[in-house]
Amino acid sequence: MLNRIVIAAAAIMMTAPLAVAGPIDSACVRSDRARGNAPLCGCIQQVANQTLSRSDQRRAAAFFRDPHQAQEVRMSKSDRDNAFWARYKRFAGAAEAYCR
């Protein structure tokens, strides 16, 4: 019984970093603003996993490379961009509250 618990705990520990790796995490770690703050970037990715689709995550990750792109989406008149921006704002608010 104890061996099973140890094996399960080891499996969780070994796969935990893989669970947070994603487009937001990768872009965040590479960004100048995060300065390689891996725990913060991992937290933001966890929130993204709960609030954004994978395609929304890829689109939001582009904002780390080109922040002006976020401004263009925010100011867009497109229904698609407006819907994305609403989802992105919910994600950003949740990440800000959760990852302090």
UniProtKB/TrEMBL annotation:
This is Arginine transporter. It comes from the Bacteria. Residues 1-21 form the signal peptide. Keywords: Signal.
